[in-house]
Design a protein that fits this description.
By secondary structure, the chain is an all-alpha fold. Helix 3 runs parallel beside helix 5 and helix 5 packs antiparallel against helix 6. The chain has one domain: Serine Threonine Protein Phosphatase 5, Tetratricopeptide repeat (Alpha Horseshoe). It is built from seven helices and no strands. Helices cover 67% and strands 0% of the residues. The protein starts with 5 loop residues before the first helix and ends in a 17-residue tail after the last helix.
């Protein structure tokens, strides 16, 4: 399950650019603001700038390792970049942080279903709580 923002749904790229500028400005004021790094990652992801989005999520996670939504979105970016095994690990980490995180469960199942090594699908059912 992929998440989208209002701005990307409405096709309002100008709003995404404004949002990006706002988060960049916020990070100039407080470079250790994990949520701003996460939100910048969301905007960059919506703009299709996956490598930059991934870097923002990694930075957010360095500042707050318990940010499950950043871990999940990092998985989406990695999967979009063709790095399925790393995406799988990212989704699993999101589920370690928040075992009830439905989006991460859905994304993990998707990654396992489309993993080049089809034997990985059975691993989904070894997760706690599944």
């Amino acid at each position: 399950m992929r998440t989208t923002t209002w701005a990307s749904c409405s096709g309002n790229r100008a709003r995404l650019s404004e949002a990006q500028a706002s988060y960049v400005q916020a990070l100039k004021v407080d470079p250790d603001y994990a949520d701003a790094h996460y939100n910048l990652g969301v905007v960059l992801q919506d703009l299709g700038r996956m490598s930059e989005a991934g870097a923002s999520y990694v930075r957010a996670l360095k500042l707050n390792p318990q940010l499950a939504k950043a871990q999940n979105n990092l998985g989406i970016v990695l999967q979009d970049l063709g790095r399925t095994s790393e995406a799988e690990a990212s989704y699993r980490r999101a589920l370690e942080i928040d075992p009830g995180y439905a989006d991460a469960h859905s994304n993990l199942l998707f990654a396992l279903n489309y993993h080049p090594d089809k034997r990985c699908r059975q691993d989904f059912f070894r997760l706690p709580g599944v």
